[in-house]
Design a protein that fits this description.
elongated; about 450 residues; 3 domains
């Protein structure tokens, strides 16, 4: 009886002693909600003092999606000091790889913003210019995105495991942040797989969401340069499976949906800006090849709150307007022309679509012979690039619109740039002919 009392008393003493330890009493282990929590991952392979990763829970991804366009917020879930503790080499934040990503495990996710289809993903892509949006990646099919979704969830669950391994110890282990220590040994290096692995496709190194995921033609992590002197941008995208409708934009398209961008500064601070949903434009034209002078009407389809369109036609002509209507440009000289459309919206978001050598203009052909011989038209000439297609049209009224002229020959210029045509049917003085391309 007395021994039992002593045991109970002794247990209470031990319990009180444990509770008296401040690092244990106040310990808050890393927490992660697999349903839509946005994680930030940091790693620095060149740092020998730390193993490889730091994971931060930035809260529900809907908090970022729901921000008004143009809003910039400072990320407060981690401090520069915590990054410094994790990556202690003398290079500071140079060569720091970082990314942000989220997913959810259910077949669909009902939120105040709408119902997200199963396998919806959120992730960042590194920007090459702090003022310009990257090209949205193509959507993947549901099965491929499900593989990636499992990897994202795996980063979160492994971070929870690391937190449990550390217990109340460790300078980088709290309710929103955990750093993997050098003493932690796991075969599940999920974050390392997620933000660093690459694969080779047709001799080109491309990004890879992970060993169990599908190789994708982009890299999710941003790597700070040396020296790290200016802010680095990573664009934030929402990717529903191919063929599903995105509830935020209301669109069913082939490209991921642009939400905004993160900026990481040389002092270790990070911000997020909710930008206008400007998608890369789909530029079409009334013609892509033809003889000079060639008049071309350009059309574009752009999604999102666009307020400005800037067209550069590659021949020195630039048109800026505030509507998305058609624009016209005339090319007076032969050559291949790159057409660039830059669209921008509120909040500093912009998107540039550059179509290399989109318009091919041939010099106006020189006719060496155009006459009637034996009641037949003989037409020949030179000065045309080899391989360009041409057509010969005929009409009985010179003033007829071009669409009413009848094609009598479709051919391709020879390698020497010459052309020749003799009509097979008798003609007369009331017949008119013209050469067009294509």
């Amino acid at each position: 009886m007395q021994k039992n009392k002593l045991k109970k008393f002794g247990f209470k003493l031990v319990l009180l002693a444990v509770l008296a330890l401040p690092e244990l009493a106040g310990a808050q282990l890393f927490k992660y909600n697999a349903t839509g929590d946005l994680l930030a991952g940091f790693r620095k392979p060149l740092d020998s003092a730390a193993l490889y990763e730091l994971v931060v829970d930035l809260g529900s991804v809907t908090n970022f999606v729901n921000l008004p366009v143009g809003t910039t917020v400072t990320i407060t879930n981690f401090t520069p000091t915590e990054l410094t503790n994790a990556f202690t080499d003398t290079g500071g934040f140079q060569y720091l790889q970082w990314s942000a990503f989220a997913a959810f495990p259910s077949s669909s996710w009902v939120t105040p913003l709408g119902t997200f289809p199963g396998a919806t993903l959120w992730f960042t892509l590194p920007g090459t210019n702090v003022n310009t949006q990257t090209r949205p990646p193509a959507l993947n099919y549901k099965g491929e995105q499900s593989d990636v979704k499992l990897l994202i969830s795996g980063v979160g669950s492994e971070a929870v495991n690391i937190a449990g391994f550390l217990g109340g110890a460790g300078t980088n282990n709290n309710s929103v942040l955990v750093r993997e220590p050098t003493s932690y040994d796991s075969s599940d290096d999920t974050l390392s797989f997620f933000i660093q692995d690459t694969t080779v496709v047709n001799g080109i190194t491309v990004g890879d969401f992970g060993e169990s995921g599908s190789p994708l033609p982009f890299v999710v992590e941003n790597t700070t340069p040396s020296p790290f002197a200016a802010a680095q941008r990573s664009d934030f995208y929402e990717s529903v499976p191919y063929g599903d409708q995105d509830p935020v934009s209301g669109l069913t398209s082939t490209n991921a949906y642009f939400l905004g961008y993160f900026l990481l500064y040389p002092n270790g601070t990070e911000t997020f800006t909710r930008a206008a949903a400007v998608a890369i434009s789909a530029v079409t034209s009334s013609a892509t090849v033809g003889f000079a002078p060639l008049q071309v009407v350009f059309t574009n389809s752009v999604t999102g709150g666009v307020t400005n369109w800037v067209w550069n036609f590659g021949n020195g002509t630039v048109i800026t307007n505030t509507t998305g209507g058609n624009v016209t440009n005339t090319y007076t000289a032969g050559g291949d022309y790159t057409v660039t459309l830059t669209v921008s919206g509120p909040g500093g978001s912009s998107s540039t679509d550059a179509l290399a050598n989109f318009i091919a203009v041939s010099p106006a052909p020189r006719f060496s012979r155009v006459n009637l011989s034996g009641g037949k038209l003989v037409l020949s000439g030179t000065n045309a690039p080899a391989g360009v297609q041409y057509r010969i049209l005929t009409a009985t009224n010179l003033n007829l619109p071009l669409a009413s002229w009848i094609p009598v020959l479709t051919n391709t210029f020879l390698i020497n740039g010459r052309f020749s045509y003799t009509n097979t049917a008798p003609t007369n003085t009331t017949s008119f002919f013209r050469l067009v391309s294509p």
